[in-house]
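Sample entry (211 residues):
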Amino acid sequence: MEPQTLKGTTTIGLVCSDGVVFATDRRASYGHFIASDRAQKAFNINDAVGATVAGSVGDAESLMRLIQAEASLYEINSGEKMSAKSISTLMANILQGNKIFPYLVQLLIGGFDGDQPRLYSLDPIGGLIEEKMASTGSGSPMAYGVLEQDYSENKTVQENVPVAVKALSSALKRDSATGDGMDVVVITKQGFRKYDDNEVKAIAESVVKKK
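Predicted structure, serialized as tokens:
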């Protein structure tokens, strides 16, 4: 019998003219059972780089602890923050090195390489692709339907946050493994910022009114 893992997710990453936007849901499922409505899927790696995770909760959390520790050690030793590309490359090497017993995850890593906002998508065995927009998890087909129409890399973070919320709202409605609210994170020159629940609710309501 195939082992059950906590899974089910929709995550979104968008490159903007002045930063990166991430949006994720909060549901973790165990087969057809909703195991948690508070799953964390967006992580702060350092003030200039963040990540989202989809897949096995245990594998994802283990990887995030590892890469956060590596980023902290690099900053202590060099006095500089690891860039999005450096963190993504290190993570790809870790995943590739464990491909015999892979981490069951899809990752989006985004932030700054110098002055440029970047977004990278990683598969479970270390495939690394730079993207302008990306969505992972079971609800990603629904999210892409909105993103293809409304997203533009020339928009600012403030302009693309409602696009991410609209795309995630579409997945929340149609994918049973996606649900229980959403988290929105932005990374700009000012650093890593997570929107509070009231801010996300207001944005979601404004998106619904515009339909």
